[in-house]
Amino acid sequence: MQFTEGPVGKTLFLFTLPTLASSILQSLNASINAAWVGRLLGERALSASANANALLFFLFSTTFGLGMAATVLVGQSLGARDMETAKRTIGTGFAFFALVSLVVATLGIAFAPQVLTLMHTPPDALPLASSYLRVIFIALPGMVLYMFVIMALRGAGDAKTPAVSFLVAAVLDCVLNPLLIRGVGPIPAFGIAGSALSTAIAQWTGVLGVIVWMYKSKHFLRFARGEGHYLRVDRRILRTLIVKGVPMGLSIAVMSSSMIVIISLVNRFGSHVTAAYGACFQLWNYIQMPAIAVGTAVSSMAAQNVGAKRWDRVSLIARAGIVFNVILTSVLVVLVSVMSHTAFALFLGSDSDALPIAQHINAMVSWSFVMLGISFVLSSVVRATGAVGVPLAILFVALWVVRIPFAYALAPTFQAEAIWWSFPLGSVVSLLLSILYYRFGNWREARMLDRGRGPVDGEAAAVEPAG
């Protein structure tokens, strides 16, 4: 999809919908798989998979930033009609991720029990977790390459193919999960390893399916005959992906580590409060999905227009992204608030003492995600130029300088209320700082790749607009 021409609002809306659908599919896939493990194998197996998945999330967070950087660089290159750099970026990223993921997978298979022991995995769950994790490491290269290819396609303006691909992979994973856990007909029962095996099959099917589709459809980003040299790592591009991608990846680490600290503070107020907060957190994951989807779409659209030097359209994209985020997130907040008793009863039970606590927490916190979403959209626009340091700093200030110290300082006086108030306070700070930087910062002068020295390793080739 070409983002440098045509109506901004309509294009952003059509690009956001399949991106949002992809996020929902991934979350539902994970939830359904966890339900299969818990129901068919019990709590010990569920604990084992949770420990293994925590490690998997950490590994993904370290590679996600580089994938985002590649998305932006591909988008900028296509906006500048520089097909050479776009293909070199994809080839460098694919080769780098393939090599690194294979090394990590090999080490993971060999040392899975030792790693899980360092994570203080419960002894009774350790054998199951080791079995599950070893198979997950077999899936790791497929997962990483799948993520990278999907993000590259989004950078090129294609959100439909990732959504369709995620649907196929999710259905395959959910169907194979119980069959491989329990066994059926000639298929033996693999136990918890079967759940990991179904994920491996789905992920490898996903990445291979997308690659085959790119060649069948003659996608303009495919490597045609004689273009195998693009799979060599270009050191200049790799350096850019690392320098720009690491701060993007660190944003995930900043958020996840802050939530660990917050939950440790919540735990001080008893199991009912912790259960209520846990139920809220499950629903907040869905409330935040529109902001993530809009931010992803905005970043891809803005990157192409930055490459084309269409700064007028970059401003329009930012405004449209804010409007869509406010509308979509507000609708979800209202729905959850109106149906709060029913929604929280799904997790806590209708007669749980934690249910009214969850309703109170949600009433105080949920609206802050509208402000946080606006901040996320503005940061996505800023990152599309290559300015990655300040958005990371804003996130760190909002969470680690404002939210966490506020909650800890006032908790002795106001008890758990201090924690709930820290959420909107942190969101307000993030919003204000993001607006100030967007309005007065020098982010428009940032660059992903210095093009002043000419094309990366050869002459730039013109790229035709994608349909």
From TrEMBL:
Domain of life, per lineage: Bacteria
The entry's localization annotation reads: Cell membrane
The entry's keywords: Cell membrane, Membrane, Transmembrane, Transmembrane helix, Transport
Query: Per the UniProt record, which residue ranges are transmembrane?
Result: 54-78, 90-112, 132-151, 163-181, 187-215, 241-266, 286-304, 316-337, 357-378, 385-406, 418-438
Annotated membrane topology:
Multi-pass membrane protein
**PANTHER family (alphabetical):** MULTIDRUG RESISTANCE PROTEIN YPNP-RELATED
Q: Please identify the protein, giving its name as recorded.
A: MATE family efflux transporter
Source organism of the structure: Pendulispora albinea
Source species taxonomy: Bacteria, Pseudomonadati, Myxococcota, Myxococcia, Myxococcales
